[in-house]
Amino acid sequence: MSTFWSRGLKAAPKGDVLRYQVELDDPYGHYLKVSLWLGDVAAGQQFALPVWIPGSYMVRDFSKHIVMAVAESQGQSAPLNMVDKSTWEVAAAYSQLCITLKVYAQEDSVRAAWFDENRAFLNGTSVFLRVVGRESWPCELTVVAPKHPALQSWKLATGLSVVDAPEWGFGKFVAEDYHALVDHPLEMGNFSVLTFEACNTPHAMVFSGSYDAVALNRQRLIQDLVPICEKQIQRFEPDTARPPFNRYLFLTHVTAAGYGGLEHRNSTALVCAQKDLPCGNNDEAADEHYQQFLGLCSHEYFHSWNVKRITPEAFVSPDYQAENYSVQLWAFEGITSYFDDLGVYQAAVIPVDAWLTQLGKTITRVHRGKGRLLQSVTESSFTAWTRFYQQDANAPNAIVSYYAKGCLVALCLDLNLRLWSEGEVCLDDVLRALWQRHGVTGLGVPENGIETLAMSMLPTHQQELAAFFELALHSTEDLPLGDVLSEFAVSLNWRAAGSLSDAGGKEVPEWRQWFGASWRLVAGELEITRVDIDSPAHRAGLSVKDRVVAINGYRADLDWAQQQLLQADAGDKWQMALFRGHRFMQKTVELEPAPKTTAWLGLNNEATPAQLRRRQEWLQC
Ligand code: ZN
Fold first, then answer.
1. Of 51, 253, 497, 611, which has the highest C-beta tally within 10 A?
2. Is the pTM of this model over 0.85?
3. What is the pLDDT of residues 394-415, one digit of tens each?
4. Using only C-alpha atoms, what is the Rg of the chain?
């Protein structure tokens, strides 16, 4: 038996327990049967399905996929009444009660539930009813081996403790309470497993979906993931090198073009594209796709501390039925975003210039959007539910990402701490203090807790830190990135974009002109997908969803239009013929000089000895 599985073995809970069961009933109809047994039910007892999943801050109303909810007690039907969109109630008292849900599972994302003849993926928030008032009771979960002939060879992977199930098999599992039950996703199907150890702790990566199992370079993955995991463990526990879990599971679903992840207490659900996984020989440098995948693994793994255990007060006992507000997502996502790629570099998996490229792209992402001048990162955090998670085409003009700008705040905070303390204090120290004070104890972080803690760690510079936090967290002024980086012998350079796909981070030839809109090809026509505020396209009256059919009298096909942009100059006038819905319109766009909002970073080896020494301490280069 693999150590990953055997490390999870646990005795069945005694006494009060909630018993859940999942049956994989109908893969073609995508139906799961999910049952819950409990005793001593009072009249008026309520049962609720969460409306959101922690880590993804949007109301998703998972109950919309419950196609049937029935209850029975000792063979007799027990009436179940709906109280609101996601809550049921029994009118009478019962000594024994069983509630059964029929769940339609066909949302292919890390946040919901999926079931077909190829795989099943379950998040507890999509399928397990919360027994209101019994959130702290232990939960036993039985996942029944599927009887359907198409699913006979299926396996099961989860970070849940195992009461009685063969290795990677179906059976009985246990969670200490409801919060734990819904924080352990389950993957089922014919997946493959990669196991390794980091800091003497068993880890496993499970691959499902469409990938080339033969070409997958497993040795390379292990070679790179081990130091990344160990780097993050040592960051929080430099003395003991002990992670806060006894095993860790990466559930990786490989698709044609997906990307994303969701963090859990001892696992993560990832989506990546085939091209993100390593297939070459071991000595090749990681390409940008594989770098992105390693950054994603590093990011979700870092969340095991930062957000899963060091948690905003508002998320410690989450309200599963409504939005939970915090201004701190800049820290829980932004600090995580700073240390994800940095961790990959510090683990010696990518060279420093690859990391600087990633950072340059993040700076570019923030600075190309005028939304940064309208919204602070704390406002972005607070309104995540309706704005960051429900972006429309105007989002770059209206909001700032608490991930991207939060990453830059973390960078500036780290460098300011290093500068003002003359190398005595850095952001790692703040993280370790947060870990001891809030992670180990389980005490939530109050809304200004990180700022207060950082200031207490540098009493000689409290005023400077307070001013920095005011600017970085509560204002819409740009961060002093160039000045701060120059003190660490890194130069921040600005240029114009060089192509429509130019995400920044590198020095490339620039465009001379600025059009100010993006497009994509839809049914042979150019559809406008984004119009930058205060740009030539905005001034000319172009709008998102306009279908451009001709430019300067010629049919606007994609390659030709890209070529025209490449050859154009500031001052050129473009006569654009377009349809807005069924209405034909003509617009004249006068191209302007390209703004320098694309960033790239370089090592400045001409810097002063003090600056070079600081860079050495920060980046070991
Ligand atoms: Zn994250």
1. 253
2. yes
3. 999 999 999 999 999 999 999 9
4. 26
